[in-house]
């Protein structure tokens, strides 16, 4: 799926060539070259994918859950067998470093492994004699067709670690709207699902524009939507789909903050911040783009972060010694550059300027070096809005209370972190922070998949989060059955009479 190939879409268990005349160029961010073209599927093709998922639902939902997860057992093995191939594919189309791309695929495998527990996690509840002679049982059942609308930044983990495994293990069928920027990983994993024995139509994958994607929000055959993307679009998805009676989980933007106390170990804390702020080129909703430092440690901390960030090797994503790869597209690079210019105009101090990063032999790649702003004030928009790139902002405070209040004033609340050796401050922080995922000396506090990915405030819209027990509740509905059985009273209370022939 490279060499400027025109990509298909996957519907009803088959790959199809789109009839659309509109295509999006897919790039290798490390070189700037076009490597594929993704179709903007037509309205009819989107409706066809929904129809294929609907047609597959009756038989798939009737398949015992113990048999459904057998497909995932086989898929897990196939993900292991094709780990290097998939890693290279993610690195090539997304720009993650080799280690980061491998982690993306391994997170898809982790989600697959967690869904193997579906037979236990779908179990309901029961109580005998809820009233004398009456028993009540609660079952969890699949709902129907779901849609996954996924972004570019984790082309393996989000669709195939967060969404697909639980969705199909619980008996639903799925249409994934893959990112037009990075669709090749999804299409390749669709082939592996086929090889694992997944029936036709259970998973369908396409690329389309927002116009065609609007069909998912109101179509009567779509039961629910799992969305990952911007807050503006996530709010629209939530309001529109919910108004049509659909279940929605919308995972949106973030501006995660870390509070660094004066007692934090300097070198280890800076290393954690570097990994969190500049890993995946900052293109993740659990990045750490803001550090709130107590004044007593701020100067030394900024100097150490600058030192470590300046030593990062910038290069092509698929070279295994690269520490910072390119951002995903030239347009996204331009977007980040505009934010850097805005930060300078707002008066933040530019400590490290990554705008002129160059990689010899890859001059057309979409590279940006690590960028650090210090003295980011409360009225500076660069410190409050998601940049989604390798840009770190340092805010300075005089105390724990000032730092916590500053962090909680931000409208986003995906994650929050504290670096400290003080147990009291750590406990108070975890209790009072607005962040849904909290780290204590952990820069990226994403829990393993048995726990939910639990953003708050403007970072999430919906009632049930992604993954964990919430995931199983999202993809199923409960049904309560109360039963009562009568004794055969007529046989016990009446005698059977026969005619003796007397008149």
- Strand order, main sheet: write it out: 15-16-17-14-13-19-20
How many structural domains can be distinguished in the coordinates? 2
Cα radius of gyration in angstroms: 26 Å
Sheet with most strands: 7 strands, mixed
CATH homologous superfamily label of the largest domain: Aldehyde Dehydrogenase, Chain A, domain 1
> Residue ranges: pLDDT <50 for 5 or more in a row?
none
- Oligomeric state of the chains? single chain
**CATH fold type of the largest domain:** Aldehyde Dehydrogenase, Chain A, domain 1
State the end-to-end CA separation: 95 Å
CATH class of the largest domain: Alpha Beta
Give the beta-strand count. Answer: 23
Approximate helicity band: 25-40%
Shape: globular
Could you report the average pLDDT, rounded to the nearest whole number?
96
Percent strand equals 15-25%
Secondary-structure-derived class = alpha/beta
What are the key terms here?
single chain, 503 residues, alpha/beta, Aldehyde Dehydrogenase, Chain A, domain 1, Aldehyde Dehydrogenase, Chain A, domain 2, 2 domains, seven-stranded mixed beta sheet, six-stranded mixed beta sheet, 16 helices, 23 strands, 39% helix
Detail the topology: elements first, then pairings.
Blueprint: E1 5-6, E2 9-11, E3 14-16, E4 23-28, E5 33-39, H1 43-62, H2 65-81, H3 83-94, H4 98-115, H5 118-121, E6 125-131, E7 134-142, E8 145-149, H6 157-169, E9 173-177, H7 184-195, E10 203-206, H8 210-218, E11 222-228, H9 231-243, E12 247-251, E13 257-260, H10 266-278, E14 290-294, H11 295-310, H12 330-346, E15 349-352, E16 371-374, E17 391-397, H13 400-408, E18 412-413, E19 415-419, H14 423-432, E20 437-440, E21 456-457, E22 460-462, H15 468-474, E23 476-484, H16 489-493
Parallel strand pairs: 1-5, 8-9, 8-11, 9-10, 11-12, 13-14, 13-19, 14-17, 16-17, 19-20
Antiparallel strand pairs: 2-3, 4-5, 6-7, 7-23, 12-22, 15-16, 18-21
Helix pairs in contact: 1-8, 2-4, 2-7, 3-4, 3-7, 4-6, 10-11
């Amino acid at each position: 799926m490279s060499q400027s190939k025109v990509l298909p879409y996957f519907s009803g268990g088959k790959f199809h060539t789109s009839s659309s005349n509109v295509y999006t160029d897919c790039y290798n961010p490390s070189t700037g070259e076009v490597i594929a073209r993704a179709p903007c599927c037509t309205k009819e093709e989107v409706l066809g994918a929904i129809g294929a998922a609907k047609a597959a639902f009756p038989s798939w939902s009737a398949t015992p859950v113990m048999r459904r997860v057998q497909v995932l057992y086989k898929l897990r093995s196939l993900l292991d067998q094709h780990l290097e191939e998939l890693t290279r594919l993610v690195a090539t189309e997304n720009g993650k470093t080799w280690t980061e791309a491998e982690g993306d695929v391994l997170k898809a495998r982790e989600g697959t492994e967690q869904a193997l527990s579906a037979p236990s996690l779908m179990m309901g509840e029961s109580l005998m004699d809820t009233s004398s002679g009456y028993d009540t049982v609660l079952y969890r059942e699949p709902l129907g067709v779901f849609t996954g609308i996924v972004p570019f930044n984790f082309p393996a983990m989000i669709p195939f670690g967060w969404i697909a495994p639980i969705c199909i293990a619980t008996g639903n069928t799925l249409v994934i709207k893959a990112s037009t920027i990075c669709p090749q990983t999804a299409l390749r994993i669709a082939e592996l699902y086929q090889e694992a024995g997944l029936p036709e139509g259970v998973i369908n994958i396409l690329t389309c524009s927002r116009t065609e994607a609007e069909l998912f929000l109101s179509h009567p055959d779509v039961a629910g939507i799992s969305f990952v993307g911007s807050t503006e679009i996530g709010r629209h998805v939530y309001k529109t789909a919910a108004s049509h009676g659909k279940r929605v989980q919308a995972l949106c933007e973030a501006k995660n903050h870390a509070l660094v106390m004066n007692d934090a170990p300097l070198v280890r804390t800076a290393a954690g911040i570097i990994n969190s702020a500049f890993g995946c080129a900052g293109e993740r909703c659990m990045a750490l783009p803001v550090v709130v430092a107590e004044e007593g440690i701020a100067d030394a901390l900024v100097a150490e972060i600058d030192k470590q960030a300046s030593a990062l090797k910038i290069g092509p994503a698929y070279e295994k010694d690269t520490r910072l790869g390119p951002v995903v597209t030239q347009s996204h690079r331009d977007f980040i550059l505009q934010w850097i210019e805005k930060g300078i105009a707002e008066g933040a101090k530019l400590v490290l300027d990554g705008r002129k990063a160059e990689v010899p032999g890859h001059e057309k790649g979409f590279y940006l070096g690590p960028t650090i702003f210090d003295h980011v004030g409360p009225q500076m928009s660069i410190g409050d809005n998601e940049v989604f790139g390798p840009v770190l902002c340092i805010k300075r405070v005089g105390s724990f209370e000032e730092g916590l209040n500053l962090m909680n004033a931000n409208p986003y609340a995906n994650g929050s972190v504290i670096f400290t050796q003080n147990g009291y401050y750590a406990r108070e922080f975890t209790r009072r922070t607005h962040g849904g995922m909290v780290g204590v000396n952990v820069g990226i506090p994403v829990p393993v998949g048995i726990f939910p990915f639990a953003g708050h405030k403007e970072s999430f819209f919906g009632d049930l989060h992604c993954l964990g027990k919430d995931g199983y509740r999202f993809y199923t509905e409960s049904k309560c059955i109360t039963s009562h059985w009568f004794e055969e009273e007529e046989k016990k209370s009446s005698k059977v009479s026969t005619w003796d022939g007397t008149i």
